[in-house]
Design a protein that fits this description.
Radius of gyration of chain A: 23 Å
Largest interface: A-B, 100 and 101 residues
Number of helices of chain A: 15
Number of strands of chain A: 18
Distance between the termini of chain A: 30 Å
CATH class of the largest domain in chain A: Alpha Beta
CATH topology of the largest domain in chain A: Uridine Diphospho-n-acetylenolpyruvylglucosamine Reductase, domain 3
Largest sheet of chain A: 7 strands, antiparallel
CATH architecture of the largest domain in chain A: 2-Layer Sandwich
Oligomer: homodimer
Chain lengths: ~450, ~450
């Protein structure tokens, strides 16, 4: 064992260093590191990074390893630093509506702890059971309720982060407003572990909603979809929490066996919309929800609609939207996570489908996503696993001219690096490199991710 | 005229260079610069900064000059760069709900243009008529509706900024979600012109509310105040847009002649609260507002209350809250803008009043502010203008141990530099210096502001 590994073992203890057989037994996506160190404290993270920085040893931060762009890929020359033993919820402050947590706590435990305190942590993604809150910071996670509550960036009041040289930067604020110099925490949010390792967070909690209204709606044109969005966002007075659109193909896929979901609305409409509003008064909220939807239906904007009448029906509606696994029927498929301004979205999707049809007579193109945020998920199958790069170039081709993004939520990691310059200018990339050089001059933190 | 000034005159034209008598005639707070350059385009800003950077010439960015911490202070060795001729609203995109503007547009014109398009730009501060949108970015402005819509940071989707060396960094996104590498715009928000000069912005617009509910409430204890906040924030279902608290002394000041405001509630309560909710349905919203307030009153949480019945009454309620000018009755006074976590706020204010009384038998201490955001404005008079530093040290003394901030909204500039280290650690200050050095190695941008 190298002198450095020995030193890291002393810092984190025997149980804190995973090598050899124990390492081989772990299921690690995207490559085996030399070792996994598992520090139990901020001080241990600091000592670990200081030692690695002095030795020029590269370090790959590990959260829940649920990322989708290979941002945690490692190789046998690299050491992985896992936050899995820093998994304590340290404080819930009900009056200030904050929760102080270590970065290795899984998202779901944060949600449950907030709920147990009568509050809500609104960020929610499918990987909630494994994804850690620190990983959510590193990727600036999004999810289903961004339209109302924002992304992970908007849930963070305070942050403790360890820099490449071991410096502990502690900004564990509980306050919403703090204009005292540069807001340093912003730099680390979404930086995919390349600028520092987040160790603790002060999270912002929200009032727990007492009512949940949901409906599935159908629309015949994209103009009607945006019209419905504007009506609901205006008339539901701040309570609209999800506006998820399923293009026809995807709706049919997830409401037809072998999918378990029963279709809440007849097939054949161009667009299906899952709408959710979270409010503070069951009776008044359900009346308002019904009124707003009824008006839109009378005005002919909504073609058809079904309002969930029970928790079971609400859960079933979300399950339909979330049954992304059905796309496996068309394997091999490629998945995308793009943003495009709302006034360009219809033309983008139309053009994309046309391009795919022109190129591959038999293709599958499933489109759905968080339309209220301009974010679409697109799944494409062309029957050939080797055509990934070709499909990518078709999907991304329409984005730059429309001011779209090749990554709305998932980040860049390694997978999307070839396309980063489609969403960022050379000046932006140069400034990113300047920042990386300033914060991590020895390039030890998650090298080769985002930037080469 | 120096060679550099001649070059700057060529870049911005004759009307773009203000020197000599024309300069002397301008009312400029905090010191006269050598000249004011007024570029009309991003290219001209870029050429100006490139020339100044090459010459080692320091530059002070000018917005509306309404800042409160001397962040635009200049001296005759410095050149001021004013955005006053970059004052175009370039586009309003109703479908994407965005507005693209040049940085020199006054805030109020942005608000009015949004309203004319049937949308809302929610940021609002007292200086709206003069303060520019670029200045709002530089200070990360807050204001009255942060509890619902966030600060300036939350209103920005895209940004174009010119770096110290003239590099134009263009990130004029219209999309909400864009996880493609570091979110560079965050770096410049709240950096008070020390890292770059913002030239254009894509602003996020919101649905225009159709109903405005307002009330003045009274409470006997601070616990009741936070109880009311939690009830309203939960039960009004996302529509709560302001929760402004006036401590007894301030309420009395602004509802007693010579103040024009008529008291909506009897004197003598410990706390007065101005509550506002913005919604989408006049009838349903007013019913809900009444129901929620009535319940809290029946439960004895609200001691007294008055609901505004007309636009005139609503305007009058805001006018009472905003009649800060009345503090001039106690001149000389010193004004503060602090944040403190909600669970520490009562003890902080109690301790502050005690400390002031211990030190100055005859003092005035008026407290009011955006309690929903943890932000208080405090005005202190001790009858002696020369005691500013002494009063400051008393007001700030209780903040560090409570995790408070010496500047919630106003920034640091020059005025609050001596106290910056009370809210920021030496590691944080070191990283700020690292960033400043990386982005502005010749230290030409607004030198001496925030950092020395």
């Amino acid at each position: 064992m190298s002198a450095l590994l020995k030193e890291l073992g002393e810092i984190s203890g025997e149980a804190g260093l995973v090598t050899g057989e124990a390492l081989a037994e772990r299921l690690i996506p995207h490559g085996q590191p030399m070792a996994i160190v598992r520090p139990e404290s901020t001080e241990a993270v600091s000592a670990t990074l200081a030692a690695c920085n002095a030795a020029g040893q590269t370090v790959v931060p590990y959260g829940g390893l649920t990322g989708l762009v290979e941002a945690t890929a490692a190789n046998p020359t690299e050491i992985a630093l896992s936050l899995e033993r820093m998994n304590q919820i340290e404080e819930i402050d009900i009056a200030s509506r904050t929760m102080t947590v270590q970065a290795g706590v899984p998202l779901q435990l944060v949600q449950e702890a907030a709920e147990a305190a009568g509050l809500m942590f609104p960020l929610d993604i499918g990987a909630r059971g494994s994804a850690t809150i620190g990983g959510n910071v590193a990727t600036n996670a999004g999810g289903n309720r961004v339209i109302r509550y924002g992304m992970m960036r908007d849930q963070i009041l305070g942050m403790e982060v360890v820099l490449a040289d071991g410096t502990v930067l502690s900004s564990l604020n509980k306050i919403i407003k703090n204009n005292t110099g540069y807001d340093l925490k912003q730099l680390f949010i979404g930086s995919e572990g390349t600028l520092g390792i987040v160790t603790r967070l002060v999270l912002r909690l929200r009032p727990m909603p007492v009512s949940q209204q949901m409906a599935f709606l159908a629309a015949n044109s994209f103009n009607e979809v945006t019209d419905i969005l504007n009506r609901l966002d205006g008339k539901l007075g701040g309570s609209l929490s999800a506006f998820e659109v399923l293009w026809q193909d995807y709706y049919q896929l997830v409401t037809t066996p072998p999918a378990a979901g029963k279709p809440p609305l007849a097939a054949g409409y161009a667009y299906y919309i899952l709408v959710e509003a979270l409010g503070g008064d069951e009776v008044a909220d359900s009346e308002r929800f019904l009124t707003v939807l009824s008006e839109a239906m009378e005005d002919g904007v909504i073609a058809d609609g079904a309002i969930a009448q029970s928790q079971g029906e609400r859960d079933a509606m979300w399950a339909i939207r979330d049954d992304v696994g059905q796309v496996r029927q068309f394997r091999p498929v490629f998945s995308f996570d793009i943003s495009v301004p709302l006034n360009q979205m219809d033309s983008y999707v139309t053009e994309l489908k046309q391009s795919l049809n022109d190129r591959w007579a038999h293709n599958q193109c499933m489109v759905f996503g968080h339309l209220g945020d301009g974010n679409l998920h697109i799944v494409v199958g062309v029957g050939d696993k080797s055509l990934k790069a070709e499909v990518e170039s078709v999907v991304y081709a329409g984005l730059p001219a429309r001011g779209g993004s090749v990554s709305a939520e998932h980040g860049i990691g390694i997978q999307k690096k070839p396309y980063l310059s489609m969403s960022r200018s050379s000046e932006e990339l140069a400034l990113m490199r300047t920042l990386k050089q300033a914060l991590d001059p020895n390039q030890i933190l998650n090298p080769g991710k985002i930037l080469s």
